[in-house]
Amino acid sequence: MIKKAKKAIILLSGGLDSATTAAIAKSKGFECVAVSFSYNQRHSIELRSAKKVARSFAVRKHKIITIDPGVFFNSALTDKTIKVPLGRSIDPKKIPITYVPARNTIFLSFALAIAEAVGAFDIFIGVNAADYSGYPDCRSEYIKAFEKMANLATAAVIEKKGRYKIHTPIIKMTKAQIIKTGTRLGVDYSLTHSCYNPNKNGLSCGRCDSCQLRLKGFKQAGLKDPAKYKEK
Amino acid sequence: MIKKAKKAIILLSGGLDSATTAAIAKSKGFECVAVSFSYNQRHSIELRSAKKVARSFAVRKHKIITIDPGVFFNSALTDKTIKVPLGRSIDPKKIPITYVPARNTIFLSFALAIAEAVGAFDIFIGVNAADYSGYPDCRSEYIKAFEKMANLATAAVIEKKGRYKIHTPIIKMTKAQIIKTGTRLGVDYSLTHSCYNPNKNGLSCGRCDSCQLRLKGFKQAGLKDPAKYKEK
Fold this sequence. Notes:
The structure is a homodimer.
Chain A: E1 7-11, H1 16-27, E2 31-38, H2 45-56, E3 61-66, H3 103-118, E4 122-124, H4 140-153, H5 155-158, E5 165-167, H6 175-184, H7 209-221
Parallel strand pairs in A: 1-2, 1-4, 2-3, 4-5
């Protein structure tokens, strides 16, 4: 008898963290349902990358969910009138302007709804606390609290069909470790996109927080970043 | 010096529970931002009622958020091919087919995002556990877990601007108590809508779970239900 693969929901942004997370889920034998979000981002390049990554992993299904633009505001990632800062944020007590209010909570809530509807109990999210940008919803205490809430929220739990698990396989890795792990698992990082502030042709700026983290990671991993950058 | 009223987010469905909850929030002196959701419900009457209720309370703002129809499926409330059962559900171990996977988690997540963006820390939701329909996400242990998660999720908390509180003022009330409380606070229940299965003219069926709970509540409160029902 062939054992049927367990389904998992993978949050896929198009960046390198979520691509690596998807590769890890696949390597553990899960049948992956990818979920991406369209939410008035500054660029649609991210979603195009997510589609390419999903295809490269031959996911069972890739759901693209539109989030009403009335929800996310007051962030440089969703509001074109707010400028994306260059360079790394330095004040650990201040949350960067690129923070989007309650974003991961909304993403995980949608993942939970889809998980319950398709009968999956495993949700993978590529949050990262080591090299993180100071976002509160990337910390493991937050993820644990969400998991606990999820296991009280759903009919599947009351009917004792299973328990939800939020997997964060890269949460403690450095960017270099993430890149090395993904490379070993066959991730094609040329499909991924990280820049907060790409130009019209989709070239990365190389200067924003996200670009700098990525470049440093590839350098420390001793690998070449296949992303395309603007000439300096 | 006039003290500025504290803002609160009120989830408003158009039903009598959330209308009463809004009245309670207002009676506590909060300046209310109402939030309703459009999510491929079987009827848009609910949203029309929510708008009327919001207007009757002179809320500061009424945000109507569209939820991608790809998220909610496998429920009689969002899928027209699933029939809404008549009468009350009786098996306490079985979740009714009108349950929508992770619905309150998604609603509260959006409320949290909007709260953070507008600088509110109080969220009101009209869940009710006494007369409830067997939904897991209407129980107080679920709400407490959500609140705990919210207080780890957000920048406002890290920056020590405040702590989120999910208010559930009617969670322990019977339907009759809810109706009496709302009547005392001036709620116009003729504006509210409860039926899962109204006819084309918007008349309530009088037979679904939600109608029966409502009718019983008005009867026990010794009041007349101003909703319009189909002739039997």
